[in-house]
Amino acid sequence: MSAKTYEVRTYGCQMNVHDSERLSGLLEGAGYVRAPEDTGEGEADIVVFNTCAVRENADNRLYGNLGRLAPIKARKPGMQIAVGGCLAQKDRDTIVKKAPWVDVVFGTHNIGSLPVLLERARVQEEAQVEIAESLEAFPSTLPTRRESAYAAWVSISVGCNNTCTFCIVPALRGKEKDRRPGDILAEVEALVAEGVSEITLLGQNVNAYGSDIGDREAFSKLLRACGKVEGLERVRFTSPHPRDFTDDVISAMAETENVMPQLHMPLQSGSDTVLKAMRRSYRQERFLGIIEKVRAAMPDAAISTDIIVGFPGETDEDFEQTLHVVREARFAQAFTFQYSKRPGTPAADMEGQIPKAVVQERYERLVALQEEISWEENKKQVGRTLEVLVAEGEGRKDDATRRLSGRAPDNRLVHFTRPEGPVRPGDVVTVDITYAAPHHLLAEGPTRGVRSTRAGDAWERRNAAEQKKPAGVMLGLPTIGAPAPAPAPTAGCGCD
Ligand code: SF4
Which residue, judged by its Cα, is nearest atom 6 of ligand 1? Predict the structure, then answer.
């Protein structure tokens, strides 16, 4: 009898992308196999929704998807549906009341229970709803099935001690809990031994790391320790909170070779009045001060951010302050959001909710300004020679034979001319930047060099295993451009 197949659908932030890799690892550990990419809606035997609770329509989207699966499940005995993530943590048994064909509901603190709950639901023919109030086990202790062969998320903390008034995370993911530095480094070393060359340290408030273990400099020490891991080429982290951005972290970034010159730091608003109403505990001057220090220490650093437009009470003057900071900070990229009410957050009940048309108008002005700045900042890259980590599935599908894509050290997307010889995702190419677009760079000339890496070997091994073809045939043209879903970049401390 062939193994049962599973499909995990991920919504929201990097934390959910990381958790979904654990959910896949758990299901494969329980003998399920991943349903092929081209599997039609509901053809998998197990469908798991790893939900996000941030956007107003997050609920509608979930119940819409569940509604579409009901008739399919009715025709497919043995099919099971599970719902996890932040919306499950918030809605709990409401989900099985609204969608009684759902078999399992599990929370953000007990993702490890999924296989057991699926089995219990099957045996007892009864829906299982199990939500833990606090973290049972660090998700990073669970088996994983990583999306990428050469890049990995490494969770260093879960939860958040802040209380931003627009955010539901603390209510759903709890207070901050830090992993022990030794556990993190052991995971990093194990990943590098498997061929991983790039890691992203993950936390709701990654630079607050240490507050739970009583060491305020634990994060900068961790960055420096990652600098000593042989074979680890690139270290990134997301997402820092401006308030916790201390000088020791900036020095550790500047002085540790494999920590990349790239920083994502959520601004949310440029107005001190709005920042106060958001309970963001920093003000415009401090934010710009950090940017200045980062640029002094790392002149080539690419800085991106998140901005919410239309927060309750935001006046035209407040919004002008946001535009002022955007002009001053010269972000490489900004994830911009129109404020949306999130039931259960203090901001949802605040006076001064802004009319949609006003929010839309401000949003368009902000996007236009940032688009201009992103392009100008990208134009400064023309003429530079950069090392690009060849990516999987980021390329333009229409000319995969002529062009490949990857990420520069500052995480800018680069499309480059395919080199004569073999190259694989995970390898590193050296290219000259010849053109800049608002959201990517081009290297149209011949590559200066290709460096085959252990990460490229890891990709080749994985691809061979997945295509059940012996290693070595991957050097053929068609496969290397093969699209693979890259996790959509989500902003901020994972969710706004
Ligand atoms: S926005 Fe970020 S820092 Fe603020 S409460 Fe949410 S997760 Fe925490």
Answer: 167
CA angle in degrees (0–180, nearest 5) for 83-86-88: 35
Which two tokens mark 16?
A: 């959910």
pLDDT, tens digit, 9 for 90 and up, residues 388-411: 999 986 655 555 567 899 999 999
Residue with CA nearest ligand 1 atom 3: 162
The pLDDT value recorded for residue 408 is 98
* Residue 164 beta carbon below 6 angstroms from any ligand 1 atom: yes
Tokens for 394? 């980021």
User: 159 φ, ψ to 5°?
Assistant: 80, 175
- The CB of 241 under 6 Å from ligand 1? The reply is yes
Nearest ligand 1 atom to the CA of 241 is 3
Domains of the chain plus CATH, in order, are 5-130 (3.40.50.12160), 146-379 (3.80.30.20), 385-478 (2.40.50)
| Distance set, CA 464 to CA 145, 205, 392, 406, 473 (Å) | 16, 38, 15, 21, 8
Our answer on whether the CB atom of 162 is closer than 6 Å to any ligand 1 atom is yes
Chain segment 354-381, per-residue pLDDT in tens: 999 999 999 999 999 999 999 999 999 9
**Which DSSP string corresponds to 239-285?**
---GGG--HHHHHHHHH-TTB-SEEE---B-S-HHHHHHHT----HH
For residue 279, which atom of ligand 1 is closest to its CA? 4
Choice from 162, 276, 340, 490 to test ligand 1 binding pocket (greatest atom count within 8 A of CB): 162
Please tell me if the CB atom of residue 160 comes closer than 6 angstroms to any atom of ligand 1.
yes
